Amino acid sequence: MSAAMRPSGRAVSRLADDWVERVRAASDVVEVIGQTVQLKRVGRNWTGLCPFHNEKTPSFSVNPDRQFYHCFGCKAGGDVFRFVQETEKVEFLEAVELLSRRAGIPIPERRPGERAVRAPLLEALDQARARGARVSGGPRP
């Protein structure tokens, strides 16, 4: 691609921002967290046992209107990306990619050839996660 046809740094950044926002809009925090935490509706929020520390009484709250979670016990909190980062032990970009694949949103290429190396690894991760869900009886509602 010639320099004249290549998007500028600002245009690439805007495309990446658009992608992140599309993934955010397609990833409901209650649905994503509900795959890991058994949630119960209490008023406008959802509550459950915090996945980040041991507890017997639910102190973990998910707000669907504002699309964030908060634990009143350990003070963990954030949005859907932060939850995936914490539970999957990945960086921000990998969390966005995981949610992007889950939502069926194409992942834009960052650098030529980079996806060719990472795609098989990410595919193997998805297969292992699916196999683990089958063994454990499936994802929690």
UniProtKB/TrEMBL annotation:
Which ranges carry the Zinc finger CHC2-type domain? 46-100
Q: InterPro entries per the record? A: DNA_primase_Znf_CHC2 (IPR036977), DnaG_primase (IPR050219), Znf_CHC2 (IPR002694)
* Biological process, per Gene Ontology: DNA replication, synthesis of primer
Record's keyword annotation contains Nucleotidyltransferase = yes
- SMART domains reported in the protein's UniProt record: ZnF_CHCC
GO CC annotation, single: primosome complex
* Cofactor(s) required for function per UniProt: Zn(2+)
Any one GO molecular-function label of the UniProt entry: zinc ion binding
Q: Which UniProt keywords apply?
A: DNA replication, DNA-binding, DNA-directed RNA polymerase, Magnesium, Metal-binding, Nucleotidyltransferase, Primosome, Transcription, Transferase, Zinc, Zinc-finger
Q: PANTHER family per the record? A: DNA PRIMASE (PTHR30313)
Q: What is this protein called?
A: Zinc finger CHC2-type domain-containing protein
Q: Which organism is it from?
A: Eiseniibacteriota bacterium
